[in-house]
Design brief:
By secondary structure, this protein is an alpha+beta fold. The chain is built from one helix and three strands; from the N terminus they run βββα.
């Protein structure tokens, strides 16, 4: 959604029985933005695995977005 600066997606394959996610871009002031990444996931036991993937991905996303 370009107007709301929001991307929502679902993962339909893999070990998760439920995986919905959203990326929201918010104004952080001073010409900066804040990216909020929310994942709704089942089973709960996958949380640490997915959290580790997010921890790995965030610096890469930051680097890519700052270069744009």
């Amino acid at each position: 959604d370009d107007l709301r600066m929001r991307l929502v997606y679902t993962v339909v394959e893999g070990r998760a029985t439920h995986y919905n996610a959203a990326l929201d871009v918010r104004d952080a002031g001073n010409g900066k933005s804040r990216l909020i990444w929310t994942i709704d996931l089942l089973p709960d036991e996958l949380g640490p695995v997915i959290g580790g993937m997010m921890d790995h991905a965030l610096p890469l996303m930051k680097k890519t977005l700052e270069a744009a």
